[in-house]
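W.,

You were right to be curious about this one. When I first looked at the sequence I had no strong expectations either way, so I just let the prediction run and decided to look at it fresh. Below is the sequence, 453 residues in total, followed by the output.
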Amino acid sequence: MKASFILMVDDDAAFRHVMSDELHRLGYEVSTAASGEEAVQSLSACEPDVVLLDLRLPGMSGLETLRAIHANLPATEVIMLTGHGSIDTAIEAIRIGAFDYVVKPCPLDELDIRIQRALERRTLRRRTNLLERGLTPPNLESSFIGESQEFRRLLGILHKIAPSDSAVLIVGETGAGKERVAKLIHARSQRSAKPFVVVECAALQESLLQSELFGHERGAFTGADRAKPGLFEVADAGTIFLDEIGEISPATQTILLRVLDTSTFRHLGGTREIHVDVRVLTATNRDIAAMVRQGLFRADLYYRLSTITVEVPPLRARKGDIDLLAQQFAAKLNLQFGSNKHFSGEALEVLRRHSWPGNVRELLHVVEAALVLCDGSTVLPEHLPADLRNAESVARTEPTVAVQQSMSLEAAERAHILAALNACKGHRGNTAKVLGISERNLYRKLCDYDLLS
């Protein structure tokens, strides 16, 4: 891991030399400057992560140097070094942008803590900037295709709830579009200019999930060699989307409930209370109410998360949208592939007869495969998967799949997993038992085949 770079600015040569050696010993890369002018000249070459800046310098003052650093490298954090008689000026430095100040002489361990906190905030800012550049586009609704009554009803509900700050639980089958619904809620909310953070709860081990959500302090556990902000901090003033919320453990449920109730939490291994302003959206394909009755999910957390519950209809409940979706997917893929292909009426009729256990995501994959296999300009029924051309779809009470001679092993496995998911109504634990594999192995296969909702 690359060491953090520190620029130390102080006119006391002996102090610079001693502190530089000590910071090197702690694992930092260190450069020094004897004046504000020298520090500003060196910024473009070294681009430090943190500057330790003496408040009293010959020539350019510490405050002037601070302003120059922020003008050239706004992402660099600055810690002021001050004497006892300059506390008021140090506080003024914080007002104009310094991260913190320390009084000389400062114990090395205390200075190290301040540097780590400065690096933590720098990391948080960088992650937030990356997320903000990837925010949901403002015209997201234009990509929501459908004219069916069920779809229009869903859009009407989203129009009502998006401007509020209420917690929303989004329920629906795998592949129905729960994450897209969450993105639309965020895009139409007053938080749309702030981060939208997605957390795949089922993809992370318990200890890692808590660290990702709430952050950790240096030394909180083996391998925690530096402090790390949590995703709740990254999402501050924006929205956090917790996908597969039914997979989190009782311990994480307890912490999450406290965050929802108080808007505060602590880093793992930390004692400082951190306050955030975050809207929480969650999603699941499991029956959380049944899990509450079975004692697998906290009732108080369920009620807190489900202030508003939105049900995303499965594709088979909105048959009238299949043609529109297929044509929209084909148009986008034509642009991607540089082709000009369209579906015949017979091929669209085959799509309409299918029960779509994998929902909209399955339709997208079918359309993509059909365009790749079609040699001409018109997609015909023979370009569609064999199971779609059968009179009955793979969705049955038992997860069985008729393997065709032309079907690859990968395609057969994917179809079998889809059938099992449908038979178990999206419940991963039951699906894994039916398939005879572990739930984690099932999760990896769902990732491989892009079947996660």
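Here's what jumped out at me. The mean pLDDT is 85. And, maybe more interesting for your project: The first strand starts at residue 5 and ends at 9.

Coffee later to discuss?

I.
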